[in-house]
Write a structure and sequence with these properties.
This protein is of the alpha+beta class. It is built from 11 helices and 29 strands. The protein has 3 domains: 2-237, Spore Coat Polysaccharide Biosynthesis Protein SpsA, Chain A (Alpha-Beta Complex); 241-307, no CATH class; 328-432, Jelly Rolls, CATH 2.60.120.10. The protein is globular and about 75 Å long.
């Protein structure tokens, strides 16, 4: 979906994107851009998620340094918009209002009484099918099923897409009026930002002072220079599993199953196993979402699928790592995942891209044993450098200075067995790193 978003917002009428993302996704972003032959103007790294208001302001301030009158199209990367040409034409139709100083939000023609989206109520006399921006009466929070059905029948409501168009100076002026303290915090975070491998790391202390709030609450619901651009050519926000079910193409019984999932006597059900070798089977289910991963399983009624945030909050309260940590940890050289974790040991799968190298490092508290299962590894242990091929292994004693590299043309995969009193990722002393990490 990220690649689809980048493609959709490229070409005639679009400049290179400014991307705001989190620490865990920065290398995924760079790899995904390269795969579709796109280059970002800049990639801003949030020290922590603070919702959309600070993120959009950071991008606006960065863009404004080059051109205060630059047009900003703000678009999340989890949207499905099948007709990219129609969407580009809709964006162009909204440009005059944005250049005139309005904050333009995009509204989607509703196709069913959806309870997972916010809504936009157009002002009296507006046309929900117009091809020009329309006046906005108010924002409406996610409704219950009864209210959603009433709004669909009323015919003057659009789904709130969370897509916006304005000039950099217009949105910055709105923050100055409605969220001045946030403006100060984000300004400082950008001024004290550090350049890192083509990324811009926003300063953590200043960033933490910005309110954790959406742009709708912080700006849009307070502003008086709003307009709504209708779009009716197909759209879905895949922010919930019910939306994934809707967009995935159900079978004759209304079921959607991934390759590793099987439905028996089920109806209107989504079954996904995200882990190779983990089979998910549903029997006699109706209107159910079941998502199985290597470290967690979600089972919910499809009508309750939007409540995943509550599940994350509950896991955080229990101290469960699944709430805050991805199963795979991405690095500039590739990625790794933990397969087994014990009291004094951990087993990882490590995948290294061709030509990539991990840092030259040592550990205070653990030793390691590497077994190559695909490709060839160039391994440094203190003063010894050797090539390790498939089904060969090497031992890294505690305290030894070591590094692995992939000198080949294909992915190199190895199994790492760690043993020791402490196995955290912060037990790394780096002596040399081609990626300039501290």
């Amino acid at each position: 979906m990220f690649q689809a978003s980048v493609r959709r917002l490229s070409g005639k009428g679009f400049s290179a994107p400014v991307i705001v993302t989190g620490e865990a996704f920065r290398f995924i972003v760079a790899e995904q851009l390269a795969q579709v032959e796109q280059v970002a103007q800049s990639i801003l790294i949030e020290p922590e998620g603070r919702n959309t208001a600070p993120a959009i302001l950071a991008a606006a301030l960065a863009i404004s340094k080059k051109d205060p009158k630059a047009l900003m199209l703000v678009a999340p990367s989890d949207h499905v918009i099948p007709d990219a040409t129609a969407f580009a034409a809709t964006v162009q139709a909204a440009v005059p209002r944005a250049q005139a100083g309005d904050l333009v939000t995009f509204g989607i023609t509703p196709t069913h009484p959806e309870t997972g989206y916010g809504y936009l109520e157009l002002a009296a006399g507006s046309d929900v099918g117009a091809d020009t921006p329309q006046p906005l009466a108010r924002f409406v929070e996610k409704p219950d099923a009864v209210l959603a059905a009433e709004m669909l029948t009323a015919g003057r409501y659009l789904w709130n897409a969370g897509i916006f168009l304005f000039t950099a100076e217009t949105i910055i002026a709105a923050y100055n009026t409605h969220a001045l303290e946030m403006r100060k915090a984000v300004d400082e975070a950008l001024e004290k930002a550090n350049a890192d491998l083509g990324f811009t790391r926003l300063a953590p202390d200043a960033w933490a002072q910005a309110d954790d709030i959406s742009i709708d609450y912080a700006i849009m619901e307070k502003a008086d220079n709003l307009a709504v651009m209708p779009f009716g050519k197909g759209w879905s926000d895949l922010g919930g599993w019910n939306a994934v079910w809707l967009e995935s193409g159900q079978d004759a019984d209304g079921n959607v199953c991934s390759d590793n999932a099987t439905a028996i006597d089920c109806t209107d059900t989504l079954l996904r196993s995200e882990t190779d070798g983990l089979q998910l089977v549903g029997i006699g289910l109706q209107n159910i979402v079941a998502i199985a991963m290597g470290d967690a399983v979600l089972v919910a009624d499809k009508s309750q699928a939007q409540r995943v945030k509550e599940a994350v909050d509950a896991l955080k309260a229990k101290g469960a790592s699944q709430a805050v940590q991805l199963p795979r940890d991405y690095r500039p050289w590739g990625w790794y995942e933990s397969l087994v974790i014990g009291g004094r040991f951990q087993v990882k799968r490590i995948v290294v891209h061709p030509g990539a190298a991990l840092s030259l490092q040592s550990h205070h508290h653990r030793s390691e044993h590497w077994i190559v299962v695909e490709g060839t590894a160039k391994v440094t242990v203190d003063d010894t450098v050797q090539l390790i091929s498939e089904n060969q292994s090497v031992y890294i004693p505690l305290g030894a200075v070591h590094r692995m590299e992939n000198p080949g043309k294909v992915l190199m995969v190895l199994i790492e067995v760690q043993t020791g009193s402490y196995l955290g990722e912060d037990d790394i002393i780096r002596y040399e790193d081609v990626y300039a990490r501290s």
